Amino acid sequence: MIEAMWVEKYRPDKIKEIVGQKEVVERLAGYLKSRNLPNMLFAGPPGTGKTTAAIALAKELFGKNWKANFLELNASDERGIDVVRGKIKSFARTQAMGGDFKIIFLDEADALTKDAQHAMRRTMEMFTNTCRFILSCNYSSKIIEPIQSRCALFRFRPLENEEIESKIRQIVRGEKLDVTSDGMGAILYVSEGDLRKAINLLQSASAFGKKINEDLIYKVVAKARPEDIREILETALGGDFMKARERLRELIITYGMSGEDAVEQFHKEVFKLKIPEDAKVRLADIIGEYDFRLVEGSSELIQTEALLAQFVSIGKGIK
């Protein structure tokens, strides 16, 4: 039997059960009391509860009929005007079962083409009496102004470590896992406010056994421990290029890191180094340049080693 995804298994069924997002939860709870919704625009980073909020609203409003009254589409997969004219219109024009309106949830709405967004605006106007739209996006600025003006805006923020840890502890108890304190710290470090990422990481690690520690987490996610990355940076800034290069190669082999992974962690850890602020600025600028080169398809090994060489050069000026 295929095990259920934990993000679905532990997804809250009620608005008040959503982790974090206190202001959003309070506003949505008010709409539930009146049993009426405006069109809404959920904006924020991935894994912060946008889809969960939409599904919980439908479940509380419609009860057992929620699936019949709720249409979820992903605009990244179906981003053209034909989707608006076809699936959305055909669902919106029919009457709701056991409720006054249906809900259409359009995930990643910022991926819709401009033509599709203009068609969506017209559809939102036509079916006001039978349907409510919830649009989810990472960046509200990519949604055309006519749609923004027709929606109540909700901004979802990255979750705090304490909020993510609370949910992870709940899952750990439910799945009877043993997560060490350094393992929990690694989950929080890697997830960066993304609860979905944290839960998926926990489930992936659990495939190797019930005991989950720091080393397992970093190997599963193909990232190095932050102290190892700082050691490389400090070694390079100290002038020992060959030792820093050798250490980086060890980490790439041990954790299966890509060049982009390494550069991303360099950027994250460089601001924690005990060096002057102007040196951090120069390092951040150089890291950005090498990240661009990697995205453009340059050799990962050559570029990461060239980046370390730049660190050595800058290190000579800050001794």
Molecular structure report:
The chain has 319 residues and is an alpha/beta fold. The chain folds into three domains: 150 residues, Rossmann fold, CATH 3.40.50.300; 61 residues, Helicase, Ruva Protein, domain 3 (Orthogonal Bundle); 92 residues, Zinc Finger, Delta Prime, domain 3, CATH 1.20.272. The protein has 15 helices and seven strands. The strands form two sheets. A five-stranded parallel sheet has the order 2-3-4-1-5, sandwiched between helices. A two-stranded parallel ribbon has the order 6-7. Strand 2, helix 4 and strand 3 form a beta-alpha-beta unit. Helix 4 runs parallel beside helix 5, helix 9 crosses helix 10 and helix 13 packs antiparallel against helix 14. The longest helix is centred in the last third of the chain and has 19 residues. It is elongated, with a radius of gyration of 24 Å. The N and C termini lie far apart (60 Å). The model has no long low-confidence stretch (mean pLDDT 88).
Biggest sheet: strand arrangement: 2-3-4-1-5
**Percent strand:** 5-15%
- N-to-C CA distance: 60 Å
Task: Compute the number of helices.
Answer: 15
Query: What's the story with the biggest beta sheet?
Result: 5 strands, parallel
Average predicted confidence as pLDDT: 88
**Which term fits the overall shape?**
elongated
Contiguous runs where pLDDT drops below 50 for at least 5 residues: none
Which second-level CATH architecture of the largest domain applies? 3-Layer(aba) Sandwich
E-strand count = 7
CATH class (first level) name of the largest domain = Alpha Beta
* Main structural class: alpha/beta
Total count of domains: 3
